[in-house]
Design a protein that fits this description.
This protein has one domain: Maf protein (Alpha-Beta Complex), CATH 3.90.950.20. The protein has 6 helices and 5 strands, in the order H-E-H-E-H-H-H-E-E-E-H. The chain has a 5-stranded mixed beta sheet, sandwiched between helices. The longest helix has 21 residues. The termini are far apart.
């Protein structure tokens, strides 16, 4: 299991920023299995900011909980820009949040391919009234916990950048 303690200061800063601006956050997580919401809710006072987290590990959960079209997943695969953005849009639509981050990737050590290697993670970030943002990273050379930890760190960074934009 990944020790998320080093990310608490980053989460604390995000919680304080969102509290000051009156913003709520939701997460839509696949490869992190709820770790982003977990590190946020480690912070006292996070209930003023964290609206909810969707753990949509399976393709069926992405479709059922977030409204990601099954045909889209079948066409481009779960680990894709299109699905990350659809997850973010679904989380925004199905929550009371102002700001969402969605992650979908290959944590490994199995499941990778030439097109979607172990460590590839797609991020979808949305804030009401702003254009959606997509980022993709390949966290190469890391074990499963390392990929997940790096994904949480990047998600927190992207959320903060979106608030400050």
């Amino acid at each position: 299991m990944t020790d998320l303690t080093p990310l608490q200061s980053q989460a604390q800063a995000l919680i304080e920023l969102c509290t000051a601006r009156g913003l709520k956050i939701a997460t839509a997580e696949s490869c992190t299995g709820g770790l982003i919401a977990g590190v946020l809710t480690e912070i006292s006072g996070s209930s003023a900011v964290v609206d909810r987290g969707f753990v949509t590990y399976s393709n069926a959960a992405k479709a059922d909980m977030l409204g990601v079209p099954k045909a889209l997943i079948e066409r481009v695969g779960a680990v894709s820009q299109e699905v990350a953005l659809a997850m973010a849009a679904g989380a925004l639509a199905k929550s009371g949040a102002d700001l969402v981050v969605a992650v979908t990737g290959v944590a490994g050590p199995t499941g990778g391919s030439a097109e979607k290697p172990v460590g590839m993670v797609h991020f979808g970030v949305m804030r009401r009234g702003m254009p959606a943002r997509h980022v993709v990273h390949v966290f190469a050379g890391r074990d499963r916990s390392g990929v997940r930890f790096a994904t949480v760190a990047e998600a927190l960074k992207l959320l903060r950048e979106t608030v400050e934009a």
